[in-house]
Amino acid sequence: MASNVAISKEVFEFLTALKNNNNKEWFEENKATFKKHQGEIKNFLEAAKDHLNHHDDIEKMKLFRIYRDVRFSKDKTPYKAHFAGFFSRLGAHLRGGYYIHIKPGESFLGAGFWAPNKEDLFRIRKELEMDAEEFREVINQKSLKTIWGELQGDEVKTAPKGFDKEHPDIDLIRKKQFVFMRPLTDAEVLSPTFLEEVDNSYRAIRPYFDLMSEILTTNLNGESILE
C-alpha cells in the first residue's frame, strides 16, 4: 500500500486563493495550477481507496467536480473552494460510503448513509422500532466514539408517519440520515501521516457499517433478502 502520499500546503494556498477570487477569469488563468492540485488530490484518494480495500470492499471512488451547480442557488459563485471525494461500498451487499472534504479550516471525514432511499430508510426505522439495543451498543463503542463522536444527520421534527412519537428510541427513528463526521485540523490534513489517520478513522467505523449491512440485507426476521 502507498503510505507516502500526502497533501501539500500548496493545495490549501490554491483553495484559499480560489475562495478570494471565485470567478471564471481568475480560474481560467490558474487552470493549470488547479489541474496540478486536482491530480494530487486524486492520487491521495486512490491511495486511500487502496487502503480501504484491505479491510472493506469499495465499489467505486469519486472525485467531485470543482464546478458548482448554481441554477437553483442564490450563491452564484461558480466554483467550490474545496476538494471532496467519496468511496462507495460494494452495492447491495454492503451499502453506505466514506467521504473526505478538504478545505482550509473546514476539512472533515464522513461515513455512513447520507441519502438512504425510502425503502432502506423504512427498514432501518423498523429495526430501531423493534429493538435499538444493539444499534446503541455499536454507536457507543469507545473505539468508534473517540474518533467519530455522536451519530448525526437530518431528522423529522416529531415522528415519521406510522411511528409512535412516544417510542423510547424515537431520537433514532426520526433520523433521515445516519452519518458520522470527524472534523480535521489543517495540521492533520497536511501531516505526512494523514493517509494513515484517514484509514484508521475508516477502520474505526467498521462495526457500524457491519451492523447496517446486516440490517439492510435482511428482513425483520433476520432472513436474507439478497437474491
TrEMBL record:
Coiled coil: none
Recorded superkingdom: Bacteria
Pfam families, per the entry: DUF2461 (PF09365)
PANTHER family: CHROMOSOME 12, WHOLE GENOME SHOTGUN SEQUENCE, DUF2461 DOMAIN-CONTAINING PROTEIN
Protein name per its UniProtKB record: DUF2461 domain-containing protein
